[in-house]
Amino acid sequence: MTLALNGTAGRILKIEFQNTSGVKKVFSVVLSATHQNFTFDLTGFTSPMASINFVSDQVGATTYTVETSGLTYVIPVTGAAYNAGLITPLPLSPVVAGSHGTAPAGRITRR
Question: Do 11 and 27 meet the contact criterion of CB atoms below 8 Å apart?
Answer without folding.
Answer: no
